[in-house]
Amino acid sequence: MAANLQDTLTLDNGLAIPQVGLGVYKMTDEIEANFAIQSALRTGYRLIDTAAIYENEQTVGDAVKESGISREEIFITSKVWNSDQGFDQTLKAFEVSLNKLQTNYMDLYLIHWPGKDKYKETWRALERLYNEGVVKAIGVCNFQIHHLEELMAGSNEKPVINQIENHPYLTQEELRTYCRDKNIAVEAWSPIARNQLAAEPTLNHLAKKYNKSVSQIILRWHLQNGTIIIPKSVHPDRIKENIDLFDFQLSVEDMKNISALNKGERLGPDPDIFDIGF
């Protein structure tokens, strides 16, 4: 578990990834997004998570260049969108993303959603990119256990990360345990449930107990679970708050109490039925 913002986790292929990063979902205003990314980088963030469908890869590339920080110090993740799945289409989509990001390699490239039948061909394309060295690690998003098993049954490379919706109302214990057993890192999108847990009594009690915000309590819970987190914010004060997580530790009992809030409640789509863009 990270002890400070600069600490990393080691993925199954040996690549180090920061445990805390900045998500840029819905950052479509170029000026606002650039300012947020630059603020995050100045604050010490070194992981930026984007995707083709977010339509801000160009802005991420601009902000990284303008930051003055060495490209090698910054971990950039992007994702292939559903309409670009398939072997040839994925290779083309990757080139488009790489050009927008203004870099000659990507640290992590992910399949955004499993869909029904194309993800195996898409994965073959990711394996090729990985073997060519233009991607340092490859993984998936929103894959259930059966998706992972089907993918790994016919693949040469194992996904090193599964990025999933994960927060106290959707703890995904079975899936996280499966990933841990297979040495697949879990990365949480929507880690604070889009601030919809702000009034949750248990979390407010713990916020007072530890003199932290509800968001910080949730993010600390993720860290102690060994989860990579990419909270999104465009506000510099919130960007700083989201990394003020290393001067306290939740007790075992408090960790259990947070996990007990689970309702199996999704804010996003169910991966088994989501088919937009395919």
From TrEMBL:
A single MF term (Gene Ontology): oxidoreductase activity, acting on the CH-OH group of donors, NAD or NADP as acceptor
Active site, renumbered: 54
InterPro entries for this protein: AKR, Aldo/ket_reductase_CS, NAD(P)_OxRdtase_dom_sf, NADP_OxRdtase_dom
Annotated transmembrane regions: none
Sites annotated Lowers pKa of active site Tyr: 79
Protein keywords: NADP, Oxidoreductase
Binding-site positions, substrate: 112
Signal peptide coordinates: none
Domain of life: Bacteria
Keyword Secreted: no
Domain named NADP-dependent oxidoreductase: residues: 27-262
Coiled coil: none
Similarity remark: Belongs to the aldo/keto reductase family.
Entry protein name: Aldo/keto reductase
